[in-house]
Amino acid sequence: MRMSKLLMPTLREVPAEAEITSHKLMLRAGLIRKLSSGIYSYLPLGLRVERKIEQIVREEMDRAGAQELLMPALLPAEAYQASGRWDVFGASMFKLKDRYDRDYCLGPTHEELFTQAVIDNVRSYKEYPMTLYQIQHKYRDEGRPRFGVIRSREFVMKDAYSFDLTEEGLDESYKAMYDAYCRIFNRLKLDFTIVDADSGAMGGSGSQEFMVKSPVGEDGIAYCDFCGYAANFEKAECIPTEVDCVEGDLAMEKIHTPNVHTIEELVDFMNAKPYNFVKTILYKADDKYIAAMVRGDRDVNEVKLKNLVGCTDDLELAEPHIVRQLTNAEVGFAGPVGLDIPVYADKEVELMKNFIVGANETDMHYKNVNMGRDFTPHTVADIRTITSGDACPKCGKPIKTAQGIEVGHIFKLGTKYSKALGLTAQTETGEEKTVIMGCYGIGVTRCLAASVEQNNDENGIIWPVAIAPYEVSVVPVNAKNDEQVKMAEEIYEKLLANGVEALLDDRDERPGVKFKDSDLIGVPARIVVGKKCGEGIVEYKLRGEANAVEMPVSEAIESACKFINENK
RNA sequence: CGGGAUGUAGCGCAGUUUGGUAGCGCAUCUGGUUUGGGACCAGAGGGCCGCAGGUUCAAAUCCUGUCAUCCCGACCA
Q: I want to staple A157 with a disulfide (CB 3.0 to 4.6 A). Which of A49, A71, A136, A138 is the partner?
């Protein structure tokens, strides 16, 4: 491609809307442009990268035996109504009506449609197992689109669905996708971690997420360098830790704590440590209210708690007026003693003695409270969120935490959708079996952003060869120097002839501009034709390395071809 | 959905307090000089000042409403 003809509107200054590195660079390098909140256009360079990622995903899915097909994005409501998800998705689904007032939505994910496709088109048990996939635009009306294409309302997703007749079959299908995902993210040169995840409302028995560690990631992950354990915060099991407590069988005592609402204020007021307190937090679980107790320096894990309570809707903090009604006190003084709703206590509370809790009376706390003696919880379980330094649930060594961008997610769905929609198969013995499903997603456009987030420097993007929009740029230093231009043209043609995706910077710009653009858009290798052109010497430089090397033209072309082929 | 902020040229911003001809830098176009890390000189084009009402002789500026965008939080199958 000749850069004089390339639609590549690079920006010197960063648009004010961009906050994180990948978003800034994707805008500056002319990869994407925002059309509306969470809705982006892909310009030529961005599209080339996106297509390359798609292609890698496609190759590995095909290699794993999955078959590609394409569903519509505009979907009639029926399928989602049958599975109940028309309501479950609620506001996060783009819903619309046709001219006859019939309900439609823009597909947020396609479990129902794939299930229906198998019902409609698979006629014999002999066709199983089967894994189908598509690479398609997905639509989710996010409450808060963020970070460019990392959380957008329209995005490209690869979604795959496996159909098996046995649990063992599901395990195999799942493993095949797991392996394919590892190959995909390796080929994309993403530094990723696989974590155990909560299966959430997708249902099912197991799930893992592929996370790219990054400070801008929206998920917390806990991992252990010693044994390899890794899990999403939502899922990571917590080992209760003992802390110093006041010893002895002390009588419970009510104390006056005026205007002291938070743990921090209490710590100062009572001259105790945060871990000597137990906080009691009231939640709305569907139509009921419950209380959750965790140590003062811990956080309630709402996902764990929700799974434990078994409610349909997500937990919500109880409204202040409800808190007042249930505790007869202002917010900040809730405690388990005398509380008339189910109390879920974290396992750690069990290990504590003579701790401090709210007294369900404004400006009052109890001290020397003991579980079992002063109150009895409805359930004691692991309901807190893991933190850095906690014991690894597998090997007991200190665990580390990080933020991660979720680029892939694999689920064992089980029979949730096949049951709801009636996908069964008659086996050879005549038995009617409900088909067992798995689902597997990759955020293609999110991978693009994750890659930029992971591969950049102060000058711009540093693409891995496999997904670079172009592989080598050829830069004649002076566009008015015929000798340089001629040599650059020749190099460019030779690269093309060798199957290298080359860019020729034939713009009449000063060299600085060309170098800056080449670096900004992240072309992996560069050949500069300059002063020593007459001697047949050019300069060869890799984007990821600091210094350029002078060498004869033929050697530079050879080096570039070799580098590209070895790193594809 | 709660809290905060911002809407002025393609991008970054000033001007709004105290109403009076809409500005600066970059980018773009023309001509010239330049040519190894975002050149210089001269000239030019480009604006419903987010939108709609209102106040006023006069509104980017004041008032009301509305829309949009971003940030923090909530939510995220």
A: A138
